[in-house]
Amino acid sequence: MHVSESIPQQSPNDPQSPNDPQSPNEPPGGPRRARRRTVITGAAGLGLAAAFGPLAVKVGSEEVGPPRPKPKASADLPAWLPLTLTPAQLAGQRVIYSYPGLTPPASLLSALSSGQAAGVIFFGENISSETQIAGVIKQLRQAAAQAPVKAPPLLMTDQEGGLVRRLPGQPTLSAKQVGEAANPVAAASTAGTGAGQNLAGVGMNVNLAPVLDVFYTAGNFIDQYQRSFSNNPNTVASLGQAFISAQQATKVAATAKHFPGLGSAATAQNTDSGPVTLNVSLSQLRSVDEVPYPAAIAAGVKLVMVSWAVYPALDAHLPAGLSPTIVGSELRGRNGFTGVTITDAIEAGALSAFGTTAQRTVSAAAAGMDLILCSARDVSQGQSATSALATAYSGGQLDQTAFRAAANRAFHLRTTLF
What we know:
By secondary structure, this protein is α/β, with parallel strands linked by helices. Helices cover about 35% and strands about 10% of the residues. The two termini are about 25 Å apart. The N terminus is likely disordered.
């Protein structure tokens, strides 16, 4: 829900927006024939999946839910990042920073220029006008250009549409309004194009949208701010796919969120504020909540954000973004996602029992999350995450092959964007 997406934004520059809390934290298809699959389980399977893409790894022995379209093929990932990077620089390729106010502090510019930051997320408090934020982004890009990693930084925000916008302008329709339009697919495509052009116009290259949550009941957590396209999973799949394809045609990456789905969350179940457990059956998760993801993956969606809710049907103990079962087996294995995974806000209240920023960061990386979203508007938070990853990499707490593969996925993404 990504840093607080629970309070409706009154204007694009209002810091109290759905992603700006007061206290920082935040398939279609017919039947198919059964076929034999080679299943690689345990740490070996997850390690291979992290390094090389989807494997036939699954939860239990049952495949439940509609068939999943084959994802678009993607090139194997060579070792693009320089082998001479220090552990801190390699770790930095996996950390997204944030900062307070309108002016990026010197410490953030230093993190970018030294190659110890992958990018920056922007909130309403960082933006006073399009001209102002375009100037800031130019400054951030110039700092990143001095780094040993030669690729533009990931510069992102939440431009979902309707109430959840950081920039004025497109898309003006909320996801729900898109879903209720006379021609919903055309409206979703228009929204995606508008979002991409709007972000690219100020120099951003990643949108943390669209939301693919399928709302269960009117007025629940995801529906109360009109952030869901529909309560019909196939409708969400088709509209999400249209939004993603149109936006990514502008060279601005789309992010499908919040896997495996927050559509069943009640009105007050906000992972930014505290722990959330969603007691949805495995059959329901796979036949409703996860249905939009194969369509998004088939469209080539660049990123998937994983939620911080606990899903006992998949993992009884760990929030999704800390769960190797959900990230490795369900998202990458069962759904075949080969792109970049990104956490929800690492400071979220849902993780209150999982230690410090450093401990949460290492746990998320171990679970298979590529990018760590440090969105508390505090540069020291990003520095803590980077330091923790570097220490875990050097000390062997995190598998070095999988670590480098994750950093390479993020680097590859950066080379393809505006």
